Predict the 3D structure of the following.
Amino acid sequence: MTSPRQLPLTIEEAQAALRAGDVTSSELTEAALARVAELDERVGAFLEVNAAAHEQAARADAELAAGTDRGPLHGIPFGLKDILATRDQPTTANSLVLDPAWGAGTDSVVTERIRESGAVIMGKLVLSEFAIGAPDANKPFPIPRNPWDLNRSPAGSSSGTGIAVATGMVLGGIGTDTGGSVRGPAAANGHTGLKVTFGRVPKWGVTPLGYSLDSVGPMARSAWDCAAILNVIAGHDPRDADAADEPTDDYLAGIEHGVEGLRVGLPRPYFFDHPELDTGARDAVEAVADQLASLGAVVSEVELPHSDIAKDANTLTMLSEALTYHRPDMGSERWSEYGSSTRMTIGRAALFSAADYVQAQRFRSWYARRAAQLMTEVDVLLTPTSPGIAPVSSEMTDPARRIRQPSYTGPFNLLGYPALALPAGFSPEGLPYSAQVVGAPFAEGLLLSAGHAYQQVTDWHRCVPPIVEQEG
Amino acid sequence: MPQPYDADLTVRALLEAAGIPASEDETAKFVEMYPALRSGADALYADEWRYEEPALRFTPLRPEPRS
């Protein structure tokens, strides 16, 4: 029997141990469930544990023993943000408002693909309500807490997936990202997360936030693990009108590509000189640039103009698209059934005009052309993922703070570009810093191989929150 | 150049038009954040992309062929 302390840290290690006969999926699952039992009351990652997890693990063990190998996720404890429909568990979107009939008896495309991979679905994970806003203690849902400091936010909206990966309750999971909801929690919780190119992963069966921005992506400890997950979930599906009919790569086959000659651009204005940017977070990313240069990358300074406006354009687009979905409920007595932060955030869209929305799309065209031009000069951009360490939870509800702060993630949702959040060190308080590597559309393979190269010479991604160590 | 406006009056009218039943306390918060939101939206109207086409998409749908 594998104790929680002995759980492999990564999917890469666990899948190797499974095939070497050093551990079984049932043992991995049992250990992960024990960790949920020990920690979840304090960190609030799970909405519902899947009662069928043991059965799925036993099936994976039987299949592997019989020589049926579905790939690296086979038998791996895995979590799904509770915004993805699952045929055998309710989907709530962390909200009292979502109609229980929505998604009932149905799997989202990504859920289908994760099931087919043989992963053990451990349960449905906490999120910010409908993937936006901050937790509301007056609603009957767990309050997610940062495992590195329980007084701090785990970020959102894929908070549960971020916490569960960081604490080893799951070895990998799925998040969604409309303005930074994969990368923010990956950064705050100290692991890796990939926001995919818009359309790379079908979003059918996922409750929408911003129709033209939403993406579904992998969250796991390492770039290797994210590549293994992306291999499973990427690819066209006709049920999603936005799904890209572009060939997928074998993201693990190219993972050892390295960074020799990789042209890395540091967009100085806004991303490195904003007055709200924590100097520690900035220095951590500078250190990543130095490390990549030592591995053969060619680092230069570049500019992506008007990225401050891109933040506002992304927010305006996201909120306007969200309000169209929520207006029937928000414009009714159900207004107060939404969490206070959710309704105050989505409700802001009512203060914009239809012309503002179209104008944001005109800026988007301009910004996209500037970015495409820039990406002929460099292969990737390197920026901080967040402007600082995870904030104290009580500060999360201050809208003025959100408006004042820069967003280093939202501009790349506006562009539809892929972006990888990588652990990049710790603050003096012991909280994770994160670097973001951004590529041109469908350059996920390049980002993952760059991240993997960095993680071969650093071990930030392998650091575990003290709360887990104390439990051992 | 945007004209001066009464934030309280504007916000109340916009929320009402959208059918959003915000409480008085919530309305006050919307009023407080409105100038920053309006300023952000106004910054989108810059000369640099004055003649840009919007990133919108529409594909006319062909009728299903009769069987």
Q: What stands out?
A: Chain B is about 45% helix and 0% strand. The first helix of chain B runs from residue 7 to 18. The two ends of chain B are 58 Å apart (CA to CA).
